């Protein structure tokens, strides 16, 4: 692989760029795979009031009405269930169900669940378990894309900087041409004149 700068710094930057590209590609693949392989969501039977065994993982109520979460107030015994801040839906058996409410942290045991105004809902897994989240989802796609773009940009910069450095070095005059050094030709000696003055 090209190293860009012919120096330690250039080789180091090229190695960092390669690692960023590899990590970005891996995260992008992981995120896209998680989004395309949606979890298999199982929902309970449609009901207006039911008893739920709240486990450690929690649960959500799902409604066929996309806007019901905005007005419904659902409770589990005497505790109010959490309301989603935005709409979220999952597809089950060809139909789309939207999160109506979710259990708060720490709710365990059997509880009676109902909503006001009364409406039909299904009990199922919490939204975070019914979707691809974290690195196996949107976060992985965003992180992978960012690392991939930054790595390719750094690699491109290293290559351009290296090419520029080599081009500048090609115009540099070697030192031996500027300083000829000591002469290697022996000095010319003149014969001494004879005693009578004749050369």
UniProtKB/TrEMBL annotation:
Domain of life the protein comes from: Bacteria
Protein name according to UniProt: Uncharacterized protein
Alphabetical UniProt keywords: Membrane, Transmembrane, Transmembrane helix
Membrane spanning residue stretches: 12-32, 141-162
Keyword Membrane attributed: yes
UniProt biased composition (Low complexity): 180-192
Region (Disordered): 172-199
């Amino acid at each position: 692989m090209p190293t860009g700068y012919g120096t330690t710094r250039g080789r180091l930057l090229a190695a960092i760029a390669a690692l960023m590209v590899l990590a970005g590609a891996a995260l992008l693949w992981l995120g896209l795979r998680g989004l395309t392989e949606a979890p298999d969501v199982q929902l309970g039977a449609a009901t207006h009031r039911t008893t739920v065994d709240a486990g450690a993982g929690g649960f959500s109520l799902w409604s066929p009405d996309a806007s019901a979460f905005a007005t419904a107030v659902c409770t589990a015994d005497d505790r109010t269930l959490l309301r989603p801040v935005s709409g979220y839906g999952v597809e089950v058996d060809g139909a789309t169900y939207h999160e109506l409410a979710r259990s708060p942290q720490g709710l365990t045991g059997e509880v009676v669940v109902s909503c006001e105004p009364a409406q039909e809902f299904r009990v199922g897994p919490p939204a975070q378990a019914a979707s691809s989240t974290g690195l196996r989802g949107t976060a992985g796609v965003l992180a992978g894309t960012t690392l991939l773009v930054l790595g390719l940009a750094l690699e491109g910069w290293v290559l351009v900087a290296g090419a520029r450095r080599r081009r500048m070095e090609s115009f540099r005059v070697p030192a031996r041409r500027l300083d000829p050094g000591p002469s290697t030709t022996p000095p010319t000696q003149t014969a001494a004149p004879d005693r009578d003055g004749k050369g």
